[in-house]
């Protein structure tokens, strides 16, 4: 029987594949941001939130509301830097692996 992505572990590591995807996406965006020559007002916000995402991923399965908050802050601070759009999209997709946000009533 096939298990969902939430239940499968990366072969040999025991790490949740969603966490692996998140760590890889965060790492890519951090590298691209570090290599981007332009300074912009909210760059420090993006760097801080990427560090927070990385710390959450290292500690295990992160809290979805906190993941989404960090994603919004990152997207808001990097939003106009089109050269980073692909890496931001990868982080968004990795966050979405953890599920939908709870509905608002």
UniProtKB/TrEMBL annotation:
UniProt-listed InterPro entries: DUF5955
Superkingdom in the source lineage: Bacteria
Pfam (any one): DUF5955
Record's protein name: DUF5955 family protein
Organism classification: Bacteria, Bacillati, Actinomycetota, Actinomycetes, Kitasatosporales
């Amino acid at each position: 029987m096939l298990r969902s992505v939430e239940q499968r572990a990366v072969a040999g590591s025991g790490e949740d594949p969603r966490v692996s995807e998140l760590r890889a996406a965060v790492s890519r965006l951090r590298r691209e941001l570090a290599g981007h020559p332009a300074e912009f007002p909210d760059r420090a916000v993006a760097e801080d939130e990427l560090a927070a995402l990385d710390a959450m991923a290292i500690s295990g399965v992160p809290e979805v509301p906190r993941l989404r908050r960090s994603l919004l802050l990152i997207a808001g601070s990097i939003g106009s830097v089109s050269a980073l759009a692909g890496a931001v999209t990868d982080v968004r997709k990795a966050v979405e692996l953890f599920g939908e946000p709870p509905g608002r009533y």
